[in-house]
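For the sake of transparency, this paper describes our internal protein records without simplification. Such a record has a labelled line for the sequence and another for the backbone structure tokens. Nothing more is needed to write down the fold, since each code stands for a local backbone conformation. For reference, a complete record is included directly beneath this paragraph.
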Amino acid sequence: MLDININLILGQMMLGLVNGAFYAIVSLGLAIIFGLLGVINYAHGVFFMLGAFIAYMLGETLGIGYWGALILAPLMIGVLGLFVEVLLIRHLYKLEHLYGLLLTLGLALFIEGFLRIVFGPQGLPYAIPANLRGAINLGFMYLPNYRAWVVIFGIILCLATWFIIERTPLGAKLRAATDNPQMVQSFGINVPVMLTLTYAAGVALAAAGGVMAAPLIAVDPSMGTNIVIVAFAVVVIGGMGSILGSIVTGLGLGLLEGFAKAVYPEASSTVLFLAMVIVLVLRPRGLFGKMA
């Protein structure tokens, strides 16, 4: 029997929006890498997890707090992404998507296993920054300040990324480089460098999400695996490679998950994948995907 409580529903949907911000950030990086490079990057969740671990290590070893880590961790993971693209991903562009999926799956398992050996399977605590403690009274709930920050900054980050790719000359060059690399190369633009930077930017987004998640969930080697599965569902529902689709769908699925937790908690963990099945049946290319 369903127990309907409007305050409970609104509260859970607001908390779901926090999760939705993470879904949007991680799936946005996935969509960028697939849409512009054609690579199914299963290791994306690992870069999310590495962002959280780097934030933790920066604090433990150098005393660098949350705000410094929010800048440094994505930059460091972006540099790591440069090497991954040059040494591994670059050789897969002309192959079937399955090869990219298998390679990045192997990379993800290796990194996760290595960190499990070094740090152990237990979660590591990461404190909420002092200036974001406390809560806001929304009337129907007290929303922690840090969760409000995650929603606001997450949406700003996603929209800024969409604007750069879809509305700037740089984004136009990136899209042209993937559609017709020979033509773009003829204009003196170094296409391989642009593709490398695109991959680095995509994984840096995931790392930023990891830093933001560190104060909310325990920093552990499996945290990336948990979110990348949902991120793939978001990308499929929004449309493979659709930047706007990933943002809207990520936030929307977070709200849907929160609604399910309030109305029928037993279904909250499966409602996202039920939505994916329905969308695949009715619109195989996703809500924002372009029809052939």
